[in-house]
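Structure representation.

___
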Amino acid sequence: MINATRNWNPVAALLRLPPAWSRLAMLALAALLALGFFAALRPAMLTLEERLGALGWTMFADAAEERRITLVTIDEASLSEVGPWPWPRETMARLVTAIDEAGAQLQLHDIIHSEPRPGDGALGAALAASSGAVLAQMPVLQSGQPVQAGVMTHPLAGLQCAAGLPQTGRYLAANGAFAGIPKGHITPVISSDGSVGKTPAAICVDGEGYPALALSGWLTAVQADNWSATMVDGGGLFGPARYLRLVAYPDLEIPVDSEGNLRISYARDPSAFRAVPAVDILNGNFDPAWLDNVWVLIGGTAFGMGDVVPTPYAGVAHGLELQARILGSLLDGEIPYTPASAGLLLGLLSLAAAFALYLLAAGRSRWSAIGLPAAGVLLPIVMLTLHIQLLQGQGVWLGWLFPALYSPLAAGMLLLLEYSRVRAERGRVFGNLNSYLPNEIAREIAYSLPSSSINARRAEMTLLCADLRNFSAFGESRPPEESAAVLHYFFTRATRIIEDSGGRVHEFKGDGLIAVWDSQDAIAARNALQAARKMQAIEIADMLPEDSPQGLEPLALGIGVEQGSVLIGSVGPAHRRGHVLLGDTVTIVLRIQELTADLAHPVLVGGVAARKLKDEKLESQGHFLLDGLRNPQQLFALPSTGRRTGDRGLKLIHGGRS
């Protein structure tokens, strides 16, 4: 049982199934392996999917200038001139006032004023006096630190926090001096590789849902008195998991996933966002048109402020750019999303790939050999291209990695199956050929192209020729089925004896056979003589039916053995080859076998082989001039068992002497 389990070959088991079922089973096995591989390496797989999936944005990035949003950056130059961060509240108040006086429609501060400081009143008054301002607050999702600083304000009424929204009890918010200023959260969803691809549309803190900074800016810009929102199902095959709807602005539907996250669009090139250093605003050294009637995002971009994240465009980008992207998508109403049925759609794509691979595998062997490897390479590219097209044209982030992973895996496994099938069929063909032809000829036919030239080699061999005497008379009086049964019995027993003695049957010819041993030494001669003795022990009478004709001379077996040089190989045109064994040794052994009846010895050995059998005490029968040959051949028989020479029943000997 242990050995059977250890030697179990799943491919061999599949090959025993009908071809269609074995291919389907291999495709199903590839799906299971792909699922296991994806689950085992999920973080790395998702990272790869995000990075290559973003090619739909980066390859066709929109470099047109974004005129609705301007970034006011607290960069290295600003820190160098104004001073290190945090700046005095009075300085921030001057910045707010300057932006407002330049005509900004709305200010969104990607800054958290959590600690009370002198000048909070002046900054609060400047923010309240502006045409519109929103401050940042940050619920903490991915940290174990028990942070509760400042006061969280401006939640969205009506949100059910139990309905799949992120929840936390930790936060970093503005201090109470800014409680009257609208706020929005700036908490990103950080992937395992540190990149940011999503942000929660709202986060629940102590049972209340607080909107993202861009949503708070939207509600502030439309001067909404009702900060309420609802979650509704997305619906449809290509719809998102859910929509977030603002009661004050019902026409705006924000697609979110099952966890309440909205995806950040990277469709715009980073150069599309206009940026003005904060120090230039404070010094009045800027173009007022850049701030007139636009939404202004204020935040830190200096590396020392630590607000940097990797993006598809760069290894390092400032967080202010992410807020600009979210705000731009919101203004365009083109927030990318993943369909709720993405798993089903990816499964259908995998099925389509499996169907294409099945057709290739079921086609001609040439199509399988070329088509399956090509499909294994091209299908992942097709899946990624489809994802890019959907993202670029429809803003749909479908995903691509699972069908792209499944396709080459399934193609490789089908190729393995078809290769194993071809090998099994070739092995079956070779086995069938080998049952009719010698091993080397069967191998040549199975594994080589046909040739019209002579393909033969000279070899030193030991030959044995055996023939059933009186078989023609038997066949004349019996049905051919009985003759075939007798020959089958004889050939089966004789073949087993010859192979057990180290030889092989070269040819079944009529009611006889020729066997060969691949050497011309004493060992081969003894093996051939041993096979001859055992063949004589075959009960010839057992081969005959019980109702054999009366008066029919009994069947007997005559065997000749000799050694010498032969030419073995194949001849004939490429479309009809014939295997041949040629040379004087072949003629001699055939004639020796024919003399077994005349000399009344069932086994005769030629002179060359007899010289290698000195220990056998063979008896010389004299020299004979064999038919078709010019040189006399000395023949030997097995030691006599009491028979007299005069009883040998010789009929005619040409040129021989005893």
Q: What stands out?
A: Confidence is low (pLDDT under 50) at residues 1-5, 642-658. The CA atoms of residues 293 and 376 lie 54 Å apart.
